Amino acid sequence: MVSVTTVANMSLVLLALFAFICKHIHADVVQGSVSLNSGVFDKIIEKHKAVLVKFDETYPYGGKQDTFKEVAKSSVSQPELLVAEVHVADYGEKDNTDLAERFAITKEAFPAYRLFINGNSKAAISYTGDTLQADSIKNFIMAESGLWLGRPGCLEEFDKLVPDFLKASDDKKTALLQQAEEAASKLTKEEDKAAADTYIKTMKKVLDKGNSFIQDEVKRVEKLRSGKVSDNKKQQLGDRLNILASFQLGLKDEL
Fold this sequence. Notes:
Layout: H1 4-26, E1 33-36, H2 41-45, E2 50-57, H3 63-74, E3 81-88, H4 97-102, E4 112-117, E5 125-126, H5 134-145, H6 156-167, H7 170-185, H8 190-209, H9 212-226, H10 231-254
Helix pairs in contact: 3-5, 5-10, 6-7, 6-8, 6-10, 7-8, 8-10, 9-10
């Protein structure tokens, strides 16, 4: 028969092991992200133009956390965007459960993303897309905040030109197309030249077929990418989808 003392000692050992594991899991620092709690949440939100907050379990891991890390890392070069985490505990003192309840976030919804714009900590914009797709989350941030985030295959100068192009009359579209071609001629890196060429070809198709071309092309490229293609080709198609997403965002701005 196991004595009470032995059971007590085993419990202490398990608690110590649990604390050790938690300490090391928690030591996983996410570059570009800060941790928020109830005491500082509003103070931090109110000081930034845009804040993306991920509500999640205390020790998140796996593919969805890797996606968050990618998004957080991409925010480092955008000074007007802050990326943050709120760790919600369902045990012990139940840290930050008040914040989760405030924004109607349940444990089943983790990870749940909320975006706050212009320091308004009362109005949260919910992200409803795929939490395994970093580019989808970035597109959401850009669409709602107007801030630019680097995505594979995209060029900031051309991304900023796209909304003007889409809302312009046909004659002005032609002038903006020429502007894009002039900007492309000054590029030196091969990957930048290839990206610029995709922007220009898309602009020409829009001039020829109208804005409906964009969504049709997205469907076509997505179908190709989901088929049996090499990893290199899949990456190229992914870059093209990112550029097409810039046109989709431009269409949203036009509405």
